[in-house]
Amino acid sequence: MSAGVCDPGGAPHMLALPAPEDASTSITLDVSTGQPVVLDHLGPVVVNSDGTLARIANWHDMSEREQQVTQRRIAKRNMERLQVLNRPADGCAQPADENLVAALKPTEALAPTERRDQGELPAPRTSSMADAWDAVAGEYAERVEPFTSSFAGALLDLAGELDGKRLLDVAAGSGAVSVLAAIDMGAHVTATDFSEEMLNCLNARPSVRFERSAGTAKLSTVVADGMALPAEWSGVFDVAVSSFGVIFFADPEAGVREMLRCLKPGAPLLISAWGSREETAAFQVIPTAAEASLPADSLPEMKPKRADGSPAGLHALLEAAGATDIAVHGPVTRTLRAESAQAYWDRCALGQPPTRALLATLSPAAAGALRTCVIATLEARFGAGAEVQLEATAYFATARRLTDFQAAVAAGLARPSGTTAPS
């Protein structure tokens, strides 16, 4: 059956399941009755980014909870990949086969009020930022985090010794910083995010599962709004960190204030932020291509919706939030690598909510034109099928919560040492 994937010449490719590795282990089914056969025991079908189909080899080794989480993630990822595969690029796309769409849906039962007809696609969840991140969690963990995580070690090094300390990771995402701090550096980590699916990705990481199965886990996850963390966390943590997280909050200052509130007096806070447009070439290809290939009146606001990540901007943010001992470190530069121009496009189109939001505003023809422009631009620079290498620069900021004495001085309830009361 065809899912409408086209090659440059316009001929549709056929999707096919891979052949079993060992014929002796394959399953033979009697379908002579003409009745449909449900293959739930094989696990969910996975749509690969090239349009082929596969299944999860270790499905039977997963716990029931892991199967439920994986099934939700695979269902979302399949629908997203089908949408990309069927998006008109050269005017040759076909509608996805309805039977294929139905076959790729999760088989778990829906509540009576949530039941859908077999051929009906689930509506995209775009009602909030949390939903937007839920929708890309699996793709983000697979495609985006390998680059953002390359900054994690250098950021955590600024905290000093972490062994045995309680660390709060705000906007933890799929968990690169949390896992490094807990498993490699010995911290007792509480990872928070407003996206439940992001934290599901964190909890599904093999290293986390192993630590928990061995009874040595030092990491817990809590779904929470970083601008309104639990009240009972006041003064609890030895370190608070947010890696490319709080800078994207609707109110970054409120997020920093919450991190400071949750720290013990005098304890350190660390955040990372992206540099200017000129310093982040890795993220400018699609915005630049959109400006070059699309009518100006069809473009949404293209400015990044994040806090100013410059040294001056970070210092001002932390000062406004009430931090002390503020220092900015950097620039810190890493190279984003994608195996091809198409892989770079997939990374952004599937794993980044801002790019997905941009594409959602465009017609299929405009989205296809943008994709063509991005791939042509990258292939002109790096070569057709060649690895894409683009740099991005970040800055790290460190600060501390005021000590009790500093807080008293700031409130006018105490005098700095060496001063006398007015006569």
Major pleated sheet: 7 strands, mixed
Strand order of the largest sheet: 7-6-5-8-9-11-10
- Report the principal-axis shape: globular
Structural class: alpha/beta
Query: Into which percent range does the helicity of residues fall?
Result: 25-40%
H/I helix tally: 14
Explain this structure.
This protein is an alpha/beta fold and 423 residues long. Helix content is 37%, strand content 16%. It contains 14 helices and 11 strands. The chain has helices spanning 64-85, 98-103, 129-148, 152-157, 176-184, 196-203, 206-213, 252-262, 285-293, 311-321, 341-351, 353-360, 364-382, 404-410, and strands at 5-6, 12-13, 45-47, 53-55, 166-170, 188-193, 219-223, 239-243, 268-274, 324-338, 388-400. Strands 7-6-5-8-9-11-10 form a 7-stranded mixed beta sheet, sandwiched between helices. The termini are far apart.
What's the topology here?
Elements: E1 5-6, E2 12-13, E3 45-47, E4 53-55, H1 64-85, H2 98-103, H3 129-148, H4 152-157, E5 166-170, H5 176-184, E6 188-193, H6 196-203, H7 206-213, E7 219-223, E8 239-243, H8 252-262, E9 268-274, H9 285-293, H10 311-321, E10 324-338, H11 341-351, H12 353-360, H13 364-382, E11 388-400, H14 404-410
Parallel strand pairs: 5-6, 5-8, 6-7, 8-9
Antiparallel strand pairs: 1-2, 3-4, 9-11, 10-11
Helix pairs in contact: 1-3, 3-6, 3-11, 8-10, 9-13, 11-12, 11-13
Defining traits:
14 helices; 11 strands; single chain; 7-stranded mixed beta sheet; 423 residues; two-stranded antiparallel sheet; alpha/beta
